[in-house]
Design a protein that fits this description.
The protein is built from ten helices and 13 strands. With 365 residues, the protein is an alpha/beta fold. α1 crosses α4. It has three domains: 67 residues; 49 residues, no CATH class; 188 residues, 3-Layer(aba) Sandwich (Rossmann fold). It is 40% helix and 19% strand. The chain has a six-stranded mixed β-sheet, with helices on both faces. Strands 3-4-13 form a three-stranded antiparallel β-sheet. A two-stranded antiparallel ribbon has the order 1-2.
């Protein structure tokens, strides 16, 4: 009789086909190239020449044809240029979600949230004894019948109040979220790419809300010299510009969007790496890139106080470690009674998703 068989581990063995492996790399490259299919394919060809990703049976030409046949890529018949499709945009979002949640599942940090259960729409695995006032639909009849059989046997079977078990459920709150992304020039300054992790988080968050919390809303605001709203489908193409950081414009637009939402629970997530350096006064821009200008800072602080009055918490994710910036974020956060995280790029997704998920439940009495 054969029990367990231990085979030699082959690190090169992969259950995915060559197309699926190349597709994973291609989707990652699209994020870095801001959705430029031609540039992503050029990079992929360079990687193939260096690391031999393809073979004699399956080449890059086959991969490009498969991309077109499977609806990931479309070719302009007039000039032969390539562009990605809506299916590719959705795939990028899904892969971003898998990448970030994959990291969350592997973590062993002791950050555990506990919630009091009650009536709701997600079943809790725990049960408890029946109490006066519990509703009929909360009764777990399988456990209740089991208790009755244990207590009185099958022959004299009867169910009493003390046999009843209640299956708890957690209430998932409906939330309107605005995600603010800084696209000022500093997001790619000093040789560090900060915009790509921000885009990945935004794509993953939008995919999570669409699939798991369809009653929630997510609006995405980008801010540089000005602020404007973008659609989820625009995220792969998002680029940093030669902008200053007009945090005030971003906050004002975020507040305006949330005023239109009917959900009682509203919040703002802001991803930024620098200090606010710009205001728009009338048709002119007031700019100061040196230090923290109190004229700009005070406007930010005032908006934080307004959000507090409107019960809109702001969670700031600062991708910078300068002490004077931390002091500004601390002052801003205290005025709003919000939260602030000083996150490294590789931990940005984990911070945001843990904070988002922890706010999805509330106690129901």
């Amino acid at each position: 009789m054969i029990g367990h068989r231990f085979l030699h581990f082959d690190p090169n063995e992969n259950n995915k086909s060559i197309f699926e492996q190349l597709l994973d790399i291609f989707m990652q490259l699209l994020t870095y190239t801001n959705g430029d299919a031609a540039e992503a394919l050029d990079w992929l060809n360079q990687l193939d020449r260096q690391y031999h990703l393809t073979n004699d049976d399956y080449g890059m030409g086959d991969f490009i044809e498969d991309l077109k046949e499977n609806g990931y890529l479309q070719e302009n018949p007039q000039d032969g240029s390539f562009s990605i499709t809506g299916k590719s945009e959705q795939t990028i979002r899904k892969k971003s979600l898998e990448e970030i949640f994959g990291k969350l599942k592997k973590t062993r940090q002791g950050n555990h949230q506990t919630f009091k259960p009650g009536q709701g729409d997600e079943v809790n695995p725990d049960t408890r004894s029946f109490q006066f006032g519990d509703m009929l639909e909360q009764i777990d009849f399988t456990e209740s019948i089991r208790n009755a059989q244990i207590n009185r046997g099958i022959e004299s079977f009867s169910m009493q109040e003390e046999d009843l078990q209640i299956r708890e459920s957690d209430f998932k709150t409906q939330t309107s979220t605005v995600l603010m992304i800084d696209i000022s020039h500093s997001m790619i300054l000093y040789g560090e790419d900060r915009i790509t992790p921000a885009k990945k988080v935004a794509m993953a968050l939008s995919e999570l809300i669409t699939t798991k919390y369809p009653k929630d809303t997510l609006d995405i605001v980008v801010f540089g010299n000005d602020a404007w709203q973008i659609e989820v489908k625009d995220l792969p193409y998002l680029q940093v510009g030669p902008y200053h950081t007009n945090t005030v414009a971003g906050l004002e637009l975020a507040m305006d969007l949330l005023r239109r939402r009917k959900n009682p629970n509203k919040q703002i997530f802001m991803i930024t790496d620098g200090k606010p350096t710009c205001l728009k006064i009338g048709k002119k821009y007031y700019k100061n890139s040196f230090g923290l200008d109190r004229k700009v800072v005070n406007r930010c602080i005032n908006l934080a106080a307004q959000c507090k009055k409107l019960k809109i918490p702001i969670t700031t994710f600062m991708i910078a470690s300068d002490p004077y910036l931390q002091n500004f974020v601390q002052e801003f956060t205290e005025m709003n009674n919000g939260k602030a995280f000083f996150a490294s790029l590789d931990k940005l997704g984990a911070f945001i998703f843990k904070d988002f998920e922890s706010g999805k439940r509330r106690t129901v009495y």
